[in-house]
Amino acid sequence: MEVEELLCMNKGDGENSYLQNSENSQKVAAMAKPALENAVQSLFSKGFLPYQVLNVADLGCSSGSETFSVVETVIQNVKIKCKELNCQIPEFQFYLNDLTGNDFNTLFRGSSNFTEKYSDLHCFVMGSPGSFHGRLFPKNTMHLIYSSYAIQWLSKVPTLRDKEGFPLNKGKMYISDTSPPVVKEAYLAQFQEDFGFFLKCRSQEMIQNGRVFLIFHGRVSEEHTTKETCVGWEPLTEAIAELVSQGLISEEKLDSFDAPDYVPSLQEVKDIVGKEGSFEIEVLETFPIEIGDKEFWSNEEILAKDIRSFTESLVSYHFGEEIVEKLYAQLTDSWLHKKNQTREGILRILQVKRAAAVGNL
Ligand SMILES: C[S@@+](CC[C@H](N)C(=O)[O-])C[C@H]1O[C@@H](n2cnc3c(N)ncnc32)[C@H](O)[C@@H]1O
Fold first, then answer.
1. Which residue has the higher pLDDT, 337 or 44?
2. Ligand 1 atom 12: residue of nearest CA
3. Ligand 1, CB cutoff 6 Å, lining residues
4. Cα 88 to ligand 1 centre (Å)
């Protein structure tokens, strides 16, 4: 099965769901809000023709509540600008995108408060299932494309086997201290291909003055295995390795699982945008953040639930549903031994504007 057919954040609103465990994403989105406000306002540049309909998309919106905060930020800032420029507020069309396995029912259940609040406006919200590693919208239609903590997901796992078919990333699930350089190169090559194509697709969909606004997890240095890059997969690998040592999971199973995820450096992102060529960078900012807060990191159960909410779909398919409870209990246990550990992360914001000429896809 392909990654894009399998991947989904945990569904519903139960204790292991993404909805109940996406506090970090909400904090991150709150930090990025002023930058998003500027992006929205920049759509109304001098001499612009008032928009009749503003088309906005959230790519990789998942089933949490954060997407509706984004919708509200857009509406509020458009209202501010329209008042300032004395022009009519446009109608809004919001496209909420995610993979087909996403829990769109839970997502749309969260929209009722929002619809009531803005009942004086013409605001339409629709689901847009499909992969952002391909075209999602018609040409020259989108004004603003937003995405938070999603573009790090690769379209597929890079090939991490040598010519004889032996695993290159033995005992690991992501780039780690013991990974040979060829593993890092394969991950980077996959990210370059995916992110380059992502930009190409978006360039076709954007209107001339449109903006793409991306929030993603980044690395501070060219080094891959610094503390801010290992959140999630590294502790999960440790938990699985423990179950391998207990004979509950085979070594071969661990060796054959690699995460379809990549944490890029600043330079890597700049290079891809420059090489692809359809967009000019307007903003590229880095924020150090402490992911969660002290309570979050010292509460191993919350931490394990958070990791579970975004890894379970892939992990249960590969390692088997019967091991899932034991595995995430082991993850909680492993963290018990690391009490008082805090982790830092790097939040990156990239805002690009469509360049004057874009090629055809
Ligand atoms: C960590 S969640 C972030 C959700 C939300 N944006 C937030 O900030 O809370 C990443 C989301 O990206 C989605 N995703 C990953 N790859 C995707 C793809 N190729 N196309 C569309 N969505 C994708 C996942 O299904 C998941 O819902």
1. 44
2. 60
3. 4, 7-9, 22, 25, 59-62, 64, 66, 97-99, 102, 131-133, 148-150, 153, 310
4. 33
Give me the percent of the chain exceeding a pLDDT of 90: 65
Q: pLDDT digit string (tens) for 138-163?
A: 999 999 999 999 999 999 999 899 88
Ordered DSSP codes for 340-351: T---EEEEEEEE
Q: What pLDDT is attached to residue 103?
A: 96
Provide the b/e sequence for 246-283 (b: ≥16 CB within 10 Å).
eeebeeeebbebbbbbbbbbbebbeebbeebebbeeee
What pLDDT sits at residue 302?
78
Q: Does domain 3-354 have CATH number 3.40.50.150?
A: yes
Which are the contacts of 320, defined by CB distance < 8 A and separation ≥ 6? Answer: none
Look at the chain and count its residues: 361
0.90 exceeded by the pTM? yes
Could you please report the per-residue DSSP string of 130-173?
Answer: S-SSS--S-TT-EEEEEEES-TTB-SSPPP-B-TTS-BSSTT-S
CA distance 245 to 251: 9
Residues 6+ apart with CB under 8 A from 222: 265, 267
Distance of CA 35 to the CA centre of its chain: 17
Q: Report which protein residue has its CA nearest ligand 1's atom 1.
A: 149
Which of 26, 31, 99 maximizes ligand 1 atoms within 8 Å of its Cβ, making it the mutation to test the pocket?
A: 99
Lowest-confidence range among 152-161, 167-176, 225-234, 305-314? 225-234
Model pLDDT for residues 8-42, shown as the tens digit of each residue: 999 999 999 998 888 777 788 888 999 999 999 99
- Domains of the chain, by residue range, sit at 3-354
